[in-house]
């Protein structure tokens, strides 16, 4: 009897050894806290199992071992039950982790803390899983499962605690397995447990694990419907049952449930895919995606609008009325919107033209085209428009009917015929006019004439001499719209044909005068509209071809008060040309006076004079200055010129030379008022040529309207038969400089220009 009892105990002991190894394998699994078990199961804790195990062993000692077939069936059934329970526990744990993560994010958002929605990824165990893991488990920290030892150990295992203090519950298979399972079943069970059990902590994103993360784009997230479909039908039905109920209370472990029904509400809170309803007064939590997108779009727009308005107020002042703001916006945006200048032709035809007073030089085959002929030529090419800006209009001699006004009369007749050809004629002339006979007659034939009261705006006059034809051709120079400028006064200008972009830029300068002489004559707009902005400047010159030779060209204007955006200032342009010279500077101008000529009190104005002295004395540039002598020359001009000559003495030895040009006159010609003078206003250096409309004293650059043109062809390839504009201007200057009409100025001369007035007022 005793022998039989000991034999019956041996299988039980072997079973206990194998069971204890299995139990030790399961209990030593590192369980990360923060888990709610969805459905409570009636099972005992470790404290209870200590006593029950000892009692079961004593009973089994007196009980006979069951048959082998019954042991195998019992072991298979219990293993199957263990797998089902483990599957459910795993799915419920994952759902509980996801729910807890969402609750944590909601609480952080309510507290004003935004969490990153980019999940952290950690490498999984290397053992291949027979059952594919759910994507949700990748966001958690994997559990490191200890492999079963080779020898059976004690049933007593380490008791890890949850983070809330609840003990880890015992799996159902730990007590129910009373017989030793077959080896193949045991290995299969251990493999499945090792590969499928992955308890993780929700929301754990330690910084030290970032280096082991998998890129988030390598894992395709699974939404809740897909996750639900991937489970068994029993799990889905069970979730549907518990999702209809709500529960409140602290997180408790599964071992604290005494009945499955008691934990139903808590399980629903953890496993239901539908968020529980909130009280009526609860604040709803919105996804930060929409608000972030709205902030991303609206904030830059608001900043741009605020910055644009601030810049507008900074440059042009605060609008005083809605009407003024509307007018400003219309000028600034609408008038210049979509305004694209026509492309320039490949080769602009340019001619340096001049008027030579009767009897000054004998005609020759090499003589340049006269200004009168160039005007007539431009009028013959007119098809749509002719715009003229002038100081005054006296193309006909209405007093004495002098025969030398024939060229002026021809030009006047051509202007009268423009309206019958369908060509628009617009004339912007300085106000007030001393003689309105010509402009009134042209207006009667359909021309638009505006007298521009610039004196009310800047205290100066419109001294510009500018023609623009069809937005393609233009003339710029020193000649007024006066019959004397065509036959009795020495003038120099530039005629440009088939050069649309440069002509359009000149037309914009005309547009400034036309705008000032409009409905609000004598007042400036809040700012110049975009359609009048400069198309060329010293910083951005136009790159063209003048008679086949590459050139960089730009227009300048004065005074700054009426210069549109981007327009180079005329005085600054002259100073830059002087500073750019390296070998020589040759200037031909009627008046040169470093004073304020027409304003009180008298002021010293050394801008140009200082630049010339610096060029001659510090950079050793050869400076030659040709000025006019007639009865309207300012007498104060000559002492300043003589002071330049003093610089030639040792030790300075500055290379400066000054000559006075006098146009001879007969007794009959002396009777013609404001004639017989060198009225040219240009400068040529070894690098560029400048042609302007202003005399060189302060008021012409600070109050009076004028225009300048700079042509730079330095370094351009000049083929046979071609000639640069700079070379043409240099030849013209040398001809006058070396002529018999140019006399050298002496430092000791007391009466350089007999008959010169105290102040001249010839424009």
From TrEMBL:
Biased composition (Basic and acidic residues): 92-109, 226-236
SUPFAM superfamilies linked to this entry: Phospholipase D/nuclease
Region (Disordered): 1-74, 92-186, 200-284
Superkingdom field: Eukaryota
Cross-referenced Pfam families: PLDc_3
Compositional bias segments (type: Acidic residues): 16-25
Family annotation (PROSITE patterns): PLD
GO MF entry, a single one: catalytic activity
Bias type Polar residues, positions: 127-141
InterPro entries in alphabetical order: Diverse_PLD-related (IPR050874), PLDc_3 (IPR032803), PLipase_D/transphosphatidylase (IPR001736)
Entry-linked SMART domains: PLDc
Comp. bias intervals (Basic residues): 33-42
Domain PLD phosphodiesterase: 458-485, 674-700
Family, per entry: Belongs to the phospholipase D family.
Protein name as annotated: PLD phosphodiesterase domain-containing protein
